[in-house]
Amino acid sequence: MYIGLVTPAPPYSRNGNRVTANRWAGILRSLGHRVTISQTYNGQDFDLLVAIHALRSAEAVVAFKARRPANPIVVLLAGTDVYGPLYEEGGGPVLDAADRLVTLQRLAVDELRPEHKDKVRTIVQSARPTPTSGPSPNARHFDVTVVGHLRPVKDPFLTAEATRRLPRESRIRVLQLGDSMGSAMTRRASAFAARNSRYTWIRGLPAWRARRLLKRSQVMVISSLSEGGANVVSEAAVDGVPILASRMPGNVGLLGDDYPGYFPVGDSSELRRLLLCCETDPTFLTHLREAEAPLRSLLDPQHECADWAALLDEIALGVS
Asked: Are 260 and 288 in contact, with CB atoms under 8 Å apart?
């Protein structure tokens, strides 16, 4: 097929939507299809449209449906779709137009109206292990990485706040990896770095360097207020990095209901307690790694490729 893949993120962006678009394009090409990535739909005669982000790609979906009404549409429900005002902001018609809705974790379907749930297919984002060459974990510090661009929905400074009242002898150091998504975020990150010796903000890293720092760290924290299903969880899990995660559906849908590394959303005190457990109790770290095993079993790129092949077969056969 000739597939159009529409994403709101511009070329060369490190935005998660663009990263997903590039990975999906690679998967679809590996399955023998021709793929064009763009930010808008410009009237091309695609056999299939794949739209990343229901609300932000709504115009492209509507235009494609008008021009090619018989051709199928697949829509990825981003976190700000699933856990935002999807229906209130006019997302219903986009979901109606779609033949399939892709979610990145199993709990996202719970947020949809009954008429749209049967269209959902969950495709967990895969990750390849980081090459093992490079320095070992830093022995002087107990490094905790926070990976993701600085946006309010990520609650990016919660981990820095959790280090404020650590015992003096603690070796915990927070490495914040990601670019700022606004001047207010830049000011806050700079202020934290200036007054908190345990906090370092590292921006402008290419993906491969961020992955190496993540793999060298002793723990990763994902403190988001909401997520559609963060790929950094897959990246940490496939490298065996223990994860501390805010207990919200986007994380629970990947790590499972009984994962032992959750803390309440926004709770820096409980996060501090868990960080100290990680630093002082090797058994707890081992427990976290073992609890990631069910997710790791889903992270082989061949598994994600097979899920896409099955979805495209459904569309080709007209399976409802």
From this structure: yes
